[in-house]
Amino acid sequence: MDKHALIVGCSDGIGLGVARVLLRDGCLVTGVSRSPSALAHERYEHAVFDVTAPDYATSLSALVGRRGPVDVCVYCAGIGKLFADAGLAADPRVLQVNLVGAAITAEVVIPPMLQAGAGHFVGLSSLADAFASRDAPSYAASKAGLSSYLVGLALALRGRGVYVTNVRFGFVDTKMARSPVRPFMISVERAADVVKTALRRRPIQLTYPKRMALLVWLVARAQAVSVWRS
């Protein structure tokens, strides 16, 4: 796989797992995150950028210009705060990182893909997009927005050679999995393999695991009934 992959949010967690998988497949990989990366490889370069910084788009454009055209971009950046811990103070940043940062990244990398008539943009969303969360309202809202944006973008770009995929995970064994109950949780390595599958098959949406999706659907359905009756 002789491609240039840009991974945003890859100093740890799923992003780091995806970087390792793509390096094993022979990709040139450029990583971007708020923190330095310990990953060392002759085909890997890491840049420390904050997706919420005013100069993020400019910095990313310069990086891509130097490293070369991006064939694949995987947006893994994501944060979440429990409402009980942070109240409303953390909500703007959660929305900026999880949703706005993805849109800014797309703004930088997709136009050159369209010009080339080829490319793939993947965003990591969550099954939390299916219902309103009293424990982490900004996280659920940001993922709902991200899923809607990615699917809409995929439909808009259909037929122009550029693919967009929305990957919806349940619980993954990372620092983000803070719930006391984490049914059907998967490893980072399994999540990275799922992303690799998305890159190979290029679906508009990929949801994993299916058992968790069914559980979330039942919860969302019960919540919708409760809201309707209130």
Characterise this structure.
The structure is a single chain. The protein has one domain (about 5-230): Rossmann fold (3-Layer(aba) Sandwich). About 45% of the residues lie in helices and about 15% in strands. The chain has seven helices and seven strands, in the order βαββαβααβαβαβα. It has a seven-stranded parallel beta sheet, with helices on both faces. α1 crosses α6 (about 190-200), α2 (about 55-65) packs parallel to α4 and α4 (about 90-115) runs parallel beside α5 (about 135-155).
Quick synopsis:
The protein is of the alpha/beta class. The protein has helices spanning 13-24, 56-67, 83-86, 91-116, 137-157, 188-201, 210-229, and strands at 4-8, 28-33, 44-48, 72-75, 119-126, 162-169, 205-208.
Layout of helices and strands:
Elements: E1 4-8, H1 13-24, E2 28-33, E3 44-48, H2 56-67, E4 72-75, H3 83-86, H4 91-116, E5 119-126, H5 137-157, E6 162-169, H6 188-201, E7 205-208, H7 210-229
Parallel strand pairs: 1-2, 1-4, 2-3, 4-5, 5-6, 6-7
Helix pairs in contact: 1-6, 2-4, 4-5
In helices, the fraction of residues equals 40-55%
Query: How many β-strand runs?
Result: 7
- For the record, the count of structural domains works out to 1
The SS-based structural class is: alpha/beta
Main-sheet strand order equals 3-2-1-4-5-6-7
Biggest sheet record = 7 strands, parallel
The CATH C-level name is Alpha Beta
The geometry reads as: globular
User: pLDDT below 50 for ≥5 consecutive residues: which ranges?
Assistant: none
Average per-residue pLDDT, rounded, comes to 91
Distance between the termini: 54 Å
Strand content: 15-25%
**What is the correct CATH architecture?**
3-Layer(aba) Sandwich
Query: Helix count, per DSSP?
Result: 7
Task: Write the H/E string, N to C.
Answer: EHEEHEHHEHEHEH
Q: CATH topology, what is it called?
A: Rossmann fold
**Gyration radius from CA atoms, angstroms:** 17 Å
